[in-house]
Amino acid sequence: MVNWIGIAAINMAIAVGLGAFGAHGLKGMVSTQQLEWWHTATLYWFVHALGLLLVGILVRLNYTTQTSAWLLQVGVIIFAGSLYAMTLGAPRWFGAITPIGGVLMIAGWLWLAVSAFRLSKVAS
């Protein structure tokens, strides 16, 4: 089984590092729009790293499957990664893949909801 708690902790470290780089390393180098993309990517990375921590705990306790974790992890990489890439100079059309990451993150949360409802049905 994948250690989702450890992966969540690594995600948090990455989010802190990328947030700091955006706040200090990119000033004056990119446009205001690009800096907003960077900040949005970092916010989503932080939030989903915390969510992944919760999901990792729930996986360990057998309250959900790893599917939620995989969807969240791949989703945040695609979502934030595409925004980071555009900030660093990738063509603007690259942003067309950003919604794919968003859909995967939504699917991860919905999978967690389905798992929770299934568990409550079994418990009753």
H/E order of the elements? HHHH
What is the alpha-carbon Rg in Å?
Answer: 16 Å
What's the main sheet like? none
* Low-confidence regions: none
**General form:** elongated
Number of helices: 4
Strand content: under 5%
3D architecture notes:
By secondary structure, the chain is an all-alpha fold. The chain starts with a helix and ends with a helix. It has one domain (4-123). It has helices at 4-25, 32-60, 66-87, 98-123. Helix 1 runs antiparallel to helix 2 (32-60) and helix 3 runs antiparallel to helix 4. The longest helix has 29 residues, at 32-60. The mean pLDDT is 94. It is 80% helix and 0% strand.
Which descriptors would you attach to this protein?
124 residues; single chain; mainly alpha
How are the secondary structure elements laid out?
Blueprint: H1 4-25, H2 32-60, H3 66-87, H4 98-123
Quick rundown:
The chain is an all-alpha fold and 124 residues long. It has one domain.
